[in-house]
């Protein structure tokens, strides 16, 4: 259920609609507010410029995390493919053992 949540970022109040918990939305807003404040203090930039720098940092982090996730997905796929290959080899080895042991019983 979507709830209206009031947050303050860069000394501006926003009324957001979210299905997330209020505590989570507040945590996100506080994080963005802190990043904007730090960017403004570090560069003596306007709030708008600091917000743009903050957005650039967040986008950069997002894209890097996407790349990490894709790399992990590829690793998992590779491990699954290797496990499948080993499973097939094991199955073939069991069939060969059965075939060989069946031949000895007939002698």
Overview of this structure, please?
The protein is of the alpha+beta class and 107 residues long. It is 77% helix and 13% strand. The chain has helices at 22-43, 47-106; strands at 3-9, 12-18. A hairpin with a 2-residue loop joins strand 1 and strand 2. The longest helix has 60 residues, at 47-106. It is elongated. The model has no long low-confidence stretch (mean pLDDT 94).
List keywords for this structure.
single chain, 107 residues, alpha+beta, two-stranded antiparallel ribbon, 2 helices, 2 strands, 13% strand, elongated
Separation of the first and last Cα atoms: 74 Å
Which radius of gyration do the C-alpha atoms yield? 28 Å
Shape: elongated
Structural class: alpha+beta
Which consecutive residue ranges, at least 5 long each, have pLDDT under 50?
A: none
Please outline the major beta sheet.
Answer: 2 strands, antiparallel
Helix content percent band? over 70%
How are strands sequenced across the largest beta sheet? 1-2
Write the H/E string, N to C: EEHH
Number of strands: 2
Number of helical regions: 2
Chain-averaged pLDDT: 94
Strand content: 5-15%
Map the helices and strands:
Blueprint: E1 3-9, E2 12-18, H1 22-43, H2 47-106
Antiparallel strand pairs: 1-2
In short:
The protein is α+β, with helices and mostly antiparallel strands.
């Amino acid at each position: 259920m979507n709830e209206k949540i009031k947050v303050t970022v860069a000394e501006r109040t926003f009324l957001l609609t979210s299905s997330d918990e209020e505590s989570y939305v507040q945590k996100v807003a506080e994080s963005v507010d802190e990043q904007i404040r730090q960017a403004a203090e570090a560069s003596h930039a306007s709030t708008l410029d600091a917000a743009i720098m903050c957005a650039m940092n967040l986008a950069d982090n997002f894209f890097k995390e996407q790349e990490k996730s894709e790399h992990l997905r590829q690793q998992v796929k590779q491990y699954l493919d290797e496990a499948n290959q080993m499973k097939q080899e094991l199955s073939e080895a069991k069939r060969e053992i059965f075939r060989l042991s069946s031949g000895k019983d007939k002698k």
